[in-house]
């Protein structure tokens, strides 16, 4: 990643800066924004896995109950 300059005043800014230190112009969101999106997608996947796991456990429990009733 090369040097970043403010699109408003062309002042050099840090690549991860959220706004220009000279004029305060808001800059493009840092890569952390995309990471957070990925984390949200991961959380959804984890919830799906958890639901499937619970359904599987209920199925196993139901199988054992059924087995004992016979
Ligand atoms: Zn600026």
Task: Characterise the protein shown here.
It is a single chain. This protein has one domain (4-69). Helices cover 54% and strands 6% of the residues. The chain has one helix spanning 32-69; strands at residues 4-5, 12-13. The protein has a two-stranded antiparallel ribbon. Strand 1 and strand 2 (12-13) form a beta hairpin. Zinc ion binds next to loops. Zinc ion (ZN) binds at residues 6, 8-9, 11, 20, 22-23, 25.
**How many beta strands in the DSSP annotation?**
2
**Averaging pLDDT over every residue, what do you get?**
85
Characterize the biggest β-sheet.
Answer: 2 strands, antiparallel
| Oligomeric assembly | single chain
Strand-residue proportion:
5-15%
Label the structural class: mainly alpha
Give the helix tally. Answer: 1
Q: How helix-rich are the residues, as a percent range?
A: 40-55%
Q: Work out the radius of gyration.
A: 25 Å
Count of the separate structural domains: 1
The helix-strand sequence is EEH
What low-confidence regions span 5 or more consecutive residues with pLDDT below 50? none
Distinct small molecules bound, one entry per kind:
zinc ion
The strand order across the widest sheet is 1-2
Distance between the termini: 68 Å
Cα shape = rod-shaped
């Amino acid at each position: 990643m090369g040097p970043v300059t403010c699109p408003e005043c062309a002042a050099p800014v840090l690549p991860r800066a959220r706004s220009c230190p000279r004029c305060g112009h808001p800059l493009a969101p840092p890569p952390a924004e995309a990471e957070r999106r990925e984390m949200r997608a991961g959380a959804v996947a984890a919830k799906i896995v958890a639901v499937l796991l619970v359904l599987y456990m209920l199925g196993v429990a139901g199988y054992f109950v059924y087995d004992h009733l016979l």
